Amino acid sequence: ATAALVWNEIIREKVTNFIMNQSKEQRILNFVLQNAVRGDPCSVVDTIDKYCSQKEWAMNVGDEKGKILDKTVEEANPSVALELGTYCGYSAVRISRLLKAGARLLTVEFNPEFAAVAKQMIEFAGVQDKVKLLEGPSEEIIPQLKKKYEVDTLDFVFLDHWKDRYRPDTILLQECNLLRKGSVLLADNVIFPGAPDFLNYVRKSPHFQCTNYPSHLEYMQAEDAMEKAVFLG
Question: Which residues are recorded as binding Mg(2+) (predicted)?
Fold first, then answer.
């Protein structure tokens, strides 16, 4: 899996970027703009999956793990949700299509190029009223959530950014009193590339009840998993 990733992510992508004078993320967006139905989030999600399974691999949560994400969001039925790591906006669109009326998703992206693509993706999907894209590092934005973005507590958190940030950001969410009894955290890629210190932390903590969902790396056969951690207070 690692060799395939290196080939897809680094070598092939760099060559294609050079030839086409645009990023892979821009190509994903263009494919969606040309092939998906405007204002239809399901169509946008399916079109991204199609591109990434057939043309160029990308680090979206993908369809297989996407179903685990869907089920977890539906069970949590959040009024306020947080996503760490927007990337191209795939999971933001996927989550927002399941939100009840009046609910909102705050999604955090550190990379300005990804954020620019995600913003267009979210608008094209027609979910911009439910999704607020916050640009910057998670460790700076999390402490601002209460005052600046009027978040009392978070009902659902999706961790899908830098794997070494999972643990410190989970601790930060607790320190900032953003979790309530029953808040649901769902972490992607806990096997590949892996987030061992996060798993170790939530599984040993008396404040979390954990469930592991074995799956596969997006658009590949490599083993991966998602970890659900429910905050017990």
Answer: 160, 188-189
Active site residue 50: no
**pLDDT tens across 113-137, in order?**
999 999 999 999 999 999 999 999 9
Phi, psi angle pair for 166, to nearest 5° = -55, -50
Q: Is 93 annotated as a binding residue?
A: no
Q: Is 181 annotated as a binding residue?
A: no
- Taking 80 as the threshold, does the pLDDT of residue 163 lie above it? yes
Q: Region 98-121: what's the mean pLDDT?
A: 97
Q: Is the dihedral of CA 14, 18, 19, 25 positive or negative?
A: positive
Residue 88: strand, helix, or coil: coil
Q: Which of 56, 83, 155, 188 is catalytic?
A: 188
pLDDT digits 0-9 by tens, 50-59 = 999 998 888 8
Could you tell me if 163 and 133 are in contact, meaning their C-beta atoms sit under 8 angstroms apart? Answer: no
- Max CA pair span of the chain: 53
Rounded to the nearest 5 degrees, what angle is found at the Cα of 91, between the Cα atoms of 188 and 22? 105
Is 164 designated active site? no
- 180-191 tens-digit pLDDT: 999 999 999 999
> Residue 61 annotated as binding?
yes
